[in-house]
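User: Please predict structures.

Assistant: First:
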Amino acid sequence: ILAGWAISLAMGPEAYAGYMAVMGGPLGKLVLLGLTAAIFYHTANGIRHLVWDAGLGFDPKFSDLTAIVVIAFTV
């Protein structure tokens, strides 16, 4: 997305306007929403794994709870 933005910016005002129209449309917003959800999920699950690396959270109930927290954080 960033590379496409930079390329369209370098190609001139018409290309930039076209790129911004695509990214501002429904498909572009859907892609950006998916990317944002992926970043939030990856961040929350990374914190969960850091807790596991510390040797904590292996109890099945706690593990299930943290899985629910990760999904809730993503939403």
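Second:
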Amino acid sequence: IKGIMNPKSRSVKKRRVELIDYDDIVANPENKYSISDVEDLAESIAAVGLRQPLELSLQDDGKYKLLAGERRWTAIGMLREQGRFDRFEAGVDSFIVEAEEIDLPLSDDMKELFLLYTTNSEQRDKTDYDLMQEAAGLDRIYAELKKKGYKIGQRRRARVAEQMGVSERQVHRLTTMEKNLTPEAKEAFKEEVMPLTVAESLAELEPDEQRKFLQDKKGKPNIQQKDVDEYKERKAQNIPASVAVKPVVFKPIESKVRVIKSLLGNKITVSDAQNKKINQQLAAVENSLEAIFKIISNAQDEG
């Protein structure tokens, strides 16, 4: 993104370190980055203090919105809950970053999003979920710039790919997933219940189908590609996920067999052509019954 900013905007200034009251800092709803290993970080901060200040944006209500450092902020909150907050009673070391310094035709919300991604661009090991959210956010920024007539020098997807250091194809995959995955599916992806390839496959389903699939897999720690493939196959065949087969469904077959046996008992004669037709139909029935037998046997083994 910095490549499209003019010289004035290119130097988004970080103010001197200020002490900000912990209770005056609020989470950023646009920050979709995942958070992990908070306990270990809390222990580190308790031992050596906060080695890197938070980066905040002052809001109209006097609160400070997090731009970078949500994991650190969460760890400090954990220490407070544990009664180990003494070193932060006077405030939390923070840089105050001002969106007004960004001289780009963006709305205030987009400028904050801009700051969120630029301040976090090199400060974390990103998961695939993080990359998905980042690709979608950057795409929104470039879309607004393009709508405002700002020349970004190349295609939007190419710009996002360049910013993230990935291929254009990967950007397309990530933004499509972010657009099509339901909130429930995104949460499962965020919690690493399923990997990128599985999440991408799940995104191909309609929202209701995604919810049905996840409900069926509720409690499963790892969702695999074969789970989605099997669900799609059942859906294509219009087969429910599970159904009880009752013996009564075979009653019509038993009835017809009895009638045929009764007719044959009367020594009915047929032509060669009719006999050939009967044998063909019997072979087809035998094959169908064999297929039913295999399905029931496999279900019994799996159950």
